[in-house]
Amino acid sequence: MQMLIGGHRADASDRKTIQVYNPATLEIVDCVPAATHEDIDTVLNNALSGAKAWGGVPLHHRIEVIRAFLERYNAQKDDLADLLLRETGKTIPQAKGCIYGSLALAEHYTELARTMGGESFPTGNRPDTEGAFMFTVREPLGVVACILPYNFPIDSYMHKVIPSLLMGNAVVVKPASDTPLTDIRVTELLLESGVPGNALQLVTGSGAKIGAWLTSDPRVNMVNLTGSTPVGKQIAEACAQNLTRVHLELGGNDAFVILPDADLERAALEAFNARIGNCGQVCCAAKRFLIQRDQKDAFIARLKAHLKTVKVGNPVDPQVNCGPLISTRAADELERNLAHCVKQGAQIVYGGKRLGPTYYEPTILEVSSEVDAAHNLELFGPVWSILPYETVDEAVRLANDTVYGLSAGVIGKDMRSMLAVAAQLQAGGCVVNGAGAFRSSDQPFGGYKHSGIGREGGRYTLEEMSQVKTIILKM
Fold it and tell me: Which end of the chain is flanked by fewer CB atoms within 10 Å, N or C?
């Protein structure tokens, strides 16, 4: 596949490419261009003219274009799911769930955009406002760079690109190098539906290089990233030089607090379901499972029973419910991090084996507060870190003892006790009576602390993808 620059398919100016692999088989699925700095310069010049033209298109027409795209997308959703499966290693239900769910997500943003209004202020409410009528309107930001992750490439596309276009911005899409193919195809569908070629462009290649070029360029008005915290910090630093707006959805080491009165079977099932999806590569999924010490063994026994039902393998097999990690690099990193935790005193009580270049056995890791995984080390894979506590106050302290704060969960029988814990957990979202792997289309999704800046979802995204202007009419 090729990049999409100025409405045309394009190779890199130096003709260099990168290969896209199926993580389940390590077979080459396709090749994509490795964009050069010259390519990015062309893209941003195009985007400046695209922002002016597309921003001047009436909202109702932008909505019509997106609705035409949704019809094309719906007609090809099964082909898109197959492509997503091959480049991500998602299981069949997960791939279809992402594609079908993303259709509803884009429809949701389209409906909301039509009713995005401003506000007015009472005339004469201050001594200096007599005879002044004040109201607000929302205007495009200009050029928005959307940098997408590998774990949910199409979901993130719909959360970032569609709202940006609806609000009248020109968009430059940079998909993850491991998973660019479905994003390319969806971009083609948008262009076929009437989005101008200069208002929507897609570039592929090195994330480090392209990210640095986009985030340091004053022609970019906003950078919207879903990715790791280290990358987010680099982007924020680069954007600060031009005061470029940033929206950052970053990592997490989310806590799931199991209260002493919890139904352990229900807690174990919640823990299993929250972590097994996408081979554990979910930013907001619970990763640290806090259980009272005298209930630890009983909880682990129940969790083991669920893990024994897992079939790891090639996701084209309908019986497989845990596919591969995204790459051999990701598997190498998980293997190193687990070894590091064991060296610090953690114990592997179930699993722990690498089953191939990209496959990892579901693993239960018992940790203490001295182990990095109990705090700031995010184990991105099918690993359940069990952290015992003595009192609920200690559980809350341990849950908050991390630089992260994306999502959280608490489970028990007494609603007041659960709500009391939820109020104390330092996270952008907290599931009461469940684990943290929850995200709806309306939810203002985002994190505290090093888990990000800004909120994504529903009207919150539309607000972030636009800027407010106050109009003052003096009578």
Answer: C
Active site residue 283: yes
What are the angstrom distances between the C-alpha of 75 and each of 17, 70, 91, 210, 233?
A: 30, 9, 21, 33, 39
Q: What confidence tens digit (pLDDT) does each residue in 230-255 have?
A: 999 999 999 999 999 999 999 999 99
d(CA 3, CA 307): 41
Place of tokens 């800004």: 454
Please identify which of the residues 249, 361, 456, 464 carries the catalytic annotation: 249
Torsion of CA 304, 310, 312, 318, to 10 degrees: 180
**pLDDT at residue number 299:** 98
Q: Which residues are within 8 A (CB) of 301 and not within 5 positions of it... i.e. 6 or more apart?
A: none
Angle between helices 296-307 and 264-276 (to 10 degrees): 50
415, β-bridge pairs? none
Q: Is pLDDT at 330 greater than 90 in this prediction? A: yes
Q: For the chain, what is the mean pLDDT?
A: 97
What CA–CA distance (Å, rounded) separates 463 from 247?
12
d(CA 264, CA 29) in angstroms, rounded, equals: 43
The tally of CA atoms less than 13 A away on the side-chain side of residue 250 is 25
Q: Where are the beta strands (DSSP E) in 196-342?
A: 200-202, 222-226, 245-249, 255-258, 288-292
Q: Is 146 a catalytic residue?
A: no
How confident is the model over 368-378, as a mean pLDDT?
97
